[in-house]
């Protein structure tokens, strides 16, 4: 059994994620997100999707980046053709 590094649960089927040369062990995706997902610098939500990065700062989307004074980032959702 392997212990989750977030909640401490000793679980027989853990999730192992390697990032930047460090191996992490979790019992669920929830714990992995809690430990590893960056936090938007504007709204403080955990970024579990693509998000955006500007000058080493992470944002959940262009709207939050713009609210923090970042220029040149554009949400492209309006440019996707309807099906």
Automatic annotation (TrEMBL):
The protein's name in its UniProt record: Prokaryotic metallothionein
Organism: Actinacidiphila oryziradicis
Lineage: Bacteria, Bacillati, Actinomycetota, Actinomycetes, Kitasatosporales
